[in-house]
Specification:
The structure holds two protein chains of two kinds. By secondary structure, chain A is mainly alpha-helical. Chain A has ten helices and no strands. Chain A is globular and about 55 Å long. Chain A starts with 9 loop residues before the first helix and ends with a helix. In chain B, 55% of the residues lie in helices and 0% in strands. Chain B is built from four helices and no strands. The chains are: A mainly alpha, B mainly alpha. Chains A and B meet through helix 1, helix 2, helix 3, helix 4 and helix 7 of A and helix 1, helix 3 and helix 4 of B.
């Protein structure tokens, strides 16, 4: 691969953003295994596209490819992956055992409460339509600008703003109803 | 954020919350918010939702096995097969 002198290497451009790539794929796919497949596929695509990459915003560039790979995978699997609600609830437990084992300082009750909170917020986000989910993940977890989110999701900025608003309304509303139930 | 009552300024209040406005726009939106109970409630909800999402450890980091597998693949001495490169997304 011939690189111009001001072009970062593929490794330098992409490897620092693997967490962001996996986080987005994981939230889009709602499943740890397919999320890993999506990231693998996206990195291979990124390798192919890299000669055309102008090196300004590698994280957003990679996330755009991850998002496209995730949508392609969802399209491919449409109809095959109608996951029952109970399975989604179980899938959320993935990763939690590890977190507990690696936290020797926390007392079990606090860990449990923290975990329950995390699962509740996670469930609320997972219930959002995918367009709303990706907007809120990119804004709140990746802290990207409206312009970057618009580019990654191939959507006008106005639509990004209204999706974000809708997603946040729904999250706020379900937090309120949860408080009432508690 | 009451789902039934919204103000016409809602998306601007959100843009202010997200730091997307310049100083003059932000000042005018904040002046509106000071007078508008609907926008005050909306802003408080935006803060609550953010606090929940950012403080609850809902970020999924890449599993070690995935990181290793990708690092091994991209660090392999032979470059990937060329061809099909014209479809690349060029923005950065």
């Amino acid at each position: 691969m011939v690189l111009s002198s001001n072009q970062p290497s593929f490794e330098a451009a992409v490897l620092p953003h693997l967490d962001a790539a996996f986080n987005l794929a994981r939230w889009l796919m709602r499943d740890p295994d397919t999320a890993q497949d999506v990231v693998q596929e996206a990195v291979m695509r990124a390798l192919t596209y890299f000669p055309n990459f102008r090196g300004i915003n590698p994280r957003a560039w990679l996330l755009q490819i991850v998002r496209n790979a995730a949508y392609a995978s969802m399209k491919l699997n449409r109809g095959l992956r109608l996951v029952p609600i109970e399975e989604l609830a179980n899938a959320e437990n993935e990763g939690t055992v590890v977190a507990e084992l690696h936290d020797p300082a926390g007392d079990p009750e606090r860990i449990l409460i923290k975990e329950r909170d995390r699962q509740t917020v996670g469930r609320m986000v997972e219930r959002l339509r995918v367009e709303l989910r990706e907007a809120v993940i990119l804004r709140e977890l990746e802290e990207l600008s409206y312009k970057e989110i618009a580019q990654i999701t191939d959507t006008p900025i106005g639509t990004v703003m209204s999706r974000l608003w809708r997603a946040r309304q729904l999250l706020a509303a379900s937090a309120h109803s949860e408080l009432k139930q508690a | 954020m009451n789902t039934h009552v919204t103000c016409d300024m809602a998306l601007l209040v959100q843009a202010d919350f997200d730091g997307e406005l310049d100083a003059a726009q932000a000042a005018s939106v904040e002046a509106h918010r000071a007078q508008c109970p609907v926008c005050q409630a909306a802003y408080a909800d935006l803060q609550r939702v953010r606090e929940r999402l950012r403080s609850r450890d809902v970020y999924y980091t890449a599993p070690d096995a995935l990181r290793r597998s990708i690092t091994d693949r991209v660090s392999a001495p032979s470059p990937p097969a060329s061809g099909n490169r014209s479809h690349g997304t060029g923005w950065g």
